[in-house]
Please model this.
Amino acid sequence: MLLNGKPARLAPGARLRDTNNLVQVSGALIGQRFMAHYTVDTLGLVKDVWVLRAEEKTGLWPKTADEAARWSFDPAAQAWTKP
Model:
C-alpha cells in the first residue's frame, strides 16, 4: 500500500470502505489506485480507509499529517478548512 507515494502497512483489523461506504477486504483492492481518507494508529499503521467519491475528491483535503493537524474539520459539513 502506498499513501502519498510512501509505503504504508495496514494495522491488524484495519477497516477499508469503498465509495458506497461498504467494507472491502484488502485483497479486493490490490493493483488499484484510489484517492482516500485514512487514519493511522499510535504505531503509524493504517487503521481506517475510506475511498472518496467523485464529489469528495473535489473538496479541500489535507495532503500531509502536518496539514491535517493545522486545518479544521467540520464533521457536520464533512469539509476541511485552512486556518
Summary: Strands lie at 2-3, 6-7, 10-17, 23-24, 36-40, 46-51, 72-74, 79-81.
